Amino acid sequence: MGVNGSVLAIDAGNSKTDVALIGEDGTVLSTARGGGFQPPVVGIGTAVDVLGSAVERVLVSAGADAGSVAHVSACLANADLPVEEEQLTEALHARGWGRTVEVRNDTFAILRAGADEPRGVAVVCGAGINCVGMTPDGRTARFPAIGRISGDWGGGSGLSEEAMWFASRAEDGRGEPTELARTLPAHFGLGSMYALIEALHLGRIASERRHELSPVLFTTAAAGDAVARGLVDRLAEEVVALSSVALSRLGLLDEAVPVVLGGSVLAARHPRLDDRIGELLAVRAPKAVVRVVKEAPVLGAGLLGLDHTGAAPEVHARLRTQYV
What's the pLDDT tens digit per position in 101-122? Predict the structure, then answer.
């Protein structure tokens, strides 16, 4: 007789997928890593096939019976709208990996990994930016988070574009002076913004490498450049705007709840950004407690799964100890 798993936890980002099979007592029975999850690029079926490869390895490694899993808790990138979550829930349920399936946007995994209970708000700033909130009674707050058309500003990609814009205008005289006009092209060994623009436009520097300019922006800001510092301050304002609106929607604005920060930009702990977020949040939500999540997001997916199954607090605690 095979092993029975209580929760199959899936955290799938654009670049990688982590899967964990969790037993009824909170013990991690097996884990696997797979490729990125990009249904807008390859289609839902092919994207779920990528998950399936990692799921199969987890089940085989644990010696689990097919269909023995009680619940699938999947936190997925590109599940930005409720209709997308519904479509992906149907797709995962059809695979028969568990008796019940719940799909959430992957930002919920960050929130649950960084919170002691399913209560609080998370802001994630990696390539893009997103924010979600939740309460134990199932209420949530969220934003579409699909780019400028949904009102988004920030994220590593957005910051890089903004830095390029200001640096280009500084070099040709349309804008105010900024050291970004020197530091951005210098990152690629180039002597001018014109050379950088040409290299990006003609493909001599891959477009995907633009994200490398976000850390350059923070370094330039730390050196005192006014334009760069202004962009860092604006990101802090956006993080606080997202989190305070989410807290307000959930009626948590005046309560001591975590505001969990995650993603490569926020996890880098840039001093000016951290300080400014703290200052602004102290005004907008003075009782909020800022936490930078260090745990793997798949832990959050697992904890959400245990929430769903009604597992005891000690089961949650046992799972958490395995991701310290």
Answer: 999 999 999 999 999 999 999 9
